[in-house]
Amino acid sequence: MNSRYAAWAVGLAALIALPFVYREPYHLHILVLMLIWSFAYTSWSIMGRFGLVSLGHGGFMGVGAYVTALLWNHLDITPWIGIPLSMVAAGLLALVVAYPCFRFRITGHYFVLVTLALSGIVLQVITATRDYTGGSLGYTPNRAPSGQGLLALQFDDKTTWYLIALGVWVVGLLIWRWVDRSMSRYAMEAISEDEDAAAAAGVNVTAEKLKITLISALMTALAGALYCQYQMFISPDTVSGIAVSLQMVFAVIVGGLYVSLGPTIGAIITILLAEGLRIGFGTKAVGWDNLVYGVLLVVFIIFLPKGILGSVLDKLKAQPKKPKTT
Amino acid sequence: MQAFLDTFDIYLLEAVVNGILLGGVLALLALGLNLIFGVIDVTWICYAELVMIGMYGMYYMVQVFGLPYWAAAPIAILQVAALGAALHYIVIAPLLTAPPINQLLATGGVLFILQSFATVAFGIDFRNLGIRLPVLAIGDMHFSYSRLLAFVAALLGMLAIYFFMKRTYTGTAIRAVAQDRQIMSLMGVDTKRIYLITSALGGALAGLAACLLVLQYDVHPFVGLSFGPITFLICVLGGLGNFVGGFIAAFVFAQIISLGGLYSDLEWGYVLAFAFFIVMMFIRPAGLLARRS
After folding, report:
1. Which of A115, A263, B248, B252 could form a disulfide with A56 if both were Cys (CB 3.0 to 4.6 A apart)?
2. Do A109 and B285 touch (CB under 8 A)?
């Protein structure tokens, strides 16, 4: 076990040291995007691994991004306060939608459809309030006057952003691990097998599900807010709506739903794919990346439902262990 | 003041009637989705995207190849029916024994494929048929013929499905499969064939909806997103697989959208409909017509 911790520590140290050694801005930009999306995908998988497939996470992400930006632009509230507020807003939204779902046993197809509608509706609200949010044209947080970058959480250099994203990503993994080791995990696994049996065994089904959903929604909103602060431009299509929700599901399924680094692998693969297609096809590539995404998603679900990392780990485990020579 | 009240009532009445007309098409979509769910136990997340493809089919046949509308419509319906059958054969059939969530996500992948296929193949421009049907004026109220036609055709389509299900051998087999999947294959019903027929029927309903919607809306690759979510809400509110519930829920939602749109933007109508939906989830979680246990 110690060697495993050592491997994590070395890996983390290498990741922290990276931007001080290697400064190519485009590659750092890609890395920051990967880390932010990895965090978002990890937060989805916290719910998704227990069979709570939500297609509403695009909605939570949109709330996180737009509430932060709107508070900054209209009310001069710094993102340091705005981001927690946006997370509270997303959490409330999650509770309002999830509570009736869980209380009244809306599971499986129903749950997916309800959450799907949620992300569609958040998109509609952002578009409908175009006087404030810029509608489908997108929205830009105001530039902070020079010297106040820290207050506005706006940094020009990529290294700072890389370190912030790295920190958040690690926190995401730690939360994943914490859930993985908690009693909630056993409760949730029992619930995903059979809700009635779990309830009979003394599991508070509604409370457990709400807890997991809330954690997941809060993290997703944080990812949205970070994405907004980093990119300094958000549009309804890039941070909310069904497409973003499906993108999350897709990346997690490709990477592996049941392993902690699966969503990260998924983010790396999808972003490399999107960037590769974008560079390969040039500006004519509009739509091609999603076309490939979609085909891969279908192929993966049919042939490799455990994802790349999950399948690889299974293969490794299946190999007979060498007899110990002492 | 009196003049204000008069116009207000006229607009209100007009919105109510338009809501009923909109409800027809929504009910048609809900019927298609419910049919597939009821028989195959799969939800096609990409259902609205099938409609989008059908709308493009209509656009190309009418605008590019110069077919008249009435000749293009049956071809478009057949096209989307074939697409529905292909979707089942290629994507759903290999996943029939997989967990339901995987089937759902696979159709989510198809949503991606269809949207981006349309973007790549047709571009992101808004296109329309260029057919402008006249407007019917009753007193001070105005109703476009395209909506009236959509309403009547949607009702006829639903009636046709009803008689098909009740009067034909295949329809009876479909209803029987919906009641019990395992037993019917023992009774000599080829469930694979029934699934394919049902998928084609669901596709045909989407195709019919496409022919009707293309008269009212411009088509673009993301047009499915504007009525897809609302269709899912309708099906859940009516109870998935419950045809009558879906029918009623479609008209309830259409009224909310239409009346909401009267007082504010159309988008706010959708938002209101969603708020209504959440409230209804507390009151009738298993659908409008579900019996209390």
Report:
1. A115
2. no
Cα–Cα–Cα angle for B49, B52, B54, rounded to 5 degrees:
115
Which DSSP symbol is given to A41? H
> Which is nearest to B111 in space by CA: A305, A283, A249, A236?
A249
Is residue A321 classed exposed, middle or buried when 0-12, 13-18 and 19+ CB atoms within 10 A define those classes? exposed
- The residues that bridge with B138 in the sheet, in sequence order, are B141
Structure tokens at A170: 């690690």
Spacing of C-alpha A234 from chain mean position: 16
Closest of A230, A254, A269 to residue A312, by C-alpha:
A254
Tokens 């109510």 correspond to B16
**Alpha-helical runs (H) found in A182-261:** 183-193, 195-200, 205-231, 236-239, 242-255
What does each of the 326 residues of chain A score in pLDDT, given as a tens digit?
Answer: 677 788 888 888 777 777 777 777 788 888 888 899 999 999 998 888 887 888 888 889 989 888 888 888 888 788 888 888 889 999 998 988 888 788 777 777 778 878 887 888 888 888 877 777 777 777 887 777 776 767 777 777 778 888 888 888 889 888 888 888 888 888 888 888 787 888 888 788 888 888 889 999 999 999 998 888 888 888 887 888 777 888 888 888 888 778 888 888 888 888 888 787 777 776 666 677 778 777 877 887 788 767 677 777 777 777 655 555 54
For residues A239 and A224, is the Cβ–Cβ distance under 8 A? yes
**Amino acid present at A88:** V
**Ordered structural domains, chain B, with CATH:** 2-283 (1.10.3470)
| Strand-strand pairing, B135-138 and B141-144 | antiparallel
Structure tokens at B232: 């899912």
For chain A, give percent helix, strand, coil, nearest 5: 80, 0, 20
B100/B116 Cα distance (integer angstroms): 25
**Which amino acid would we find at residue A205?**
V
Q: What is the Cα Rg of chain B in Å?
A: 20
* Residue B198 near residue B39 (C-beta atoms within 8 A): yes
Report residue A315 as tokens: 């293969």
Tell if the CB–CB gap between B111 and A294 is shorter than 8 Å: yes
For residue B57, what are the β-bridge partners? none
**A30: exposed, middle or buried (Cβ count in 10 Å: 0-12, 13-18, 19+):** middle
Contact between B22 and B56 under an 8 Å Cβ cutoff? The reply is no
Instruction: Please indicate whether, in this complex, the C-beta atoms of B106 and A96 are within 8 angstroms of each other.
Output: no
Q: How far apart, in whole angstroms, are the C-alpha atoms of residue B242 and residue B277? A: 17
Cβ–Cβ contacts within 10 Å for residue A215, how many?
Answer: 20
User: Using CB atoms and an 8 Å cut-off, which of residues 108-147 of chain A contact chain B?
Assistant: 108-110, 112-114, 116-118, 120-121, 123-125, 127-128
| Residues 47-66, chain A, touching B (beta carbon < 8 A) | 51, 53, 55
Q: Are the beta carbons of B229 and A287 separated by less than 8 Å?
A: no
